[in-house]
């Protein structure tokens, strides 16, 4: 697995955990750590979204 794939996977996991916390407890960890829709939180959300798209590629890799 390439380094970029591992980074994407970590970000996908972070996003999944954050959505789990939102669904179960109405608690947004990213917003708590970086501020509600601050520049940093928007960067994190954007990176998680891009990683989710990259994850589609991981489904079809045959390494």
Helix-strand blueprint:
Layout: H1 3-25, H2 29-34, H3 39-60
Walk me through the structure:
- By secondary structure, the chain is mostly helical.
- It has one domain (3-60).
- The protein has 3 helices and no strands.
- The chain has helices at residues 3-25, 29-34, 39-60.
- Helix 1 crosses helix 3 (39-60).
- It is elongated.
- The termini are close together.
Q: Brief description of this entry?
A:
With 63 residues, this protein is an all-alpha fold. It has one domain (3-60). It is built from three helices and no strands.
Question: How many strands, which pairing sense, and closed or not: the largest β-sheet?
Answer: none
Please state roughly what percent of the residues sit in beta strands, choosing from under 5%, 5-15%, 15-25%, 25-35%, 35-45% or over 45%: under 5%
Number of strands: 0
Characterize the overall form.
elongated
Helix content: over 70%
How many domains? The number is 1
Note the run of SSEs as H and E. HHH
The class by helix and strand makeup works out as: mainly alpha
Q: Counting H and I runs of at least 4 residues, what is the number of helices?
A: 3
Q: Give unreliable regions as ranges.
A: none
How many whole angstroms does the radius of gyration measure?
13 Å
Mean pLDDT across the residues is 95
| Quaternary structure annotation | single chain
């Amino acid at each position: 697995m390439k380094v970029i794939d591992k980074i994407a996977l970590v970000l996908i996991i972070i996003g999944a955990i954050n959505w789990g916390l939102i669904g179960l407890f109405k608690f947004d960890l990213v917003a708590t750590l970086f501020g509600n829709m601050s520049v940093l939180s928007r960067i994190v959300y954007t990176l998680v979204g891009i990683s989710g798209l990259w994850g589609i590629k991981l489904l079809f890799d045959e390494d």
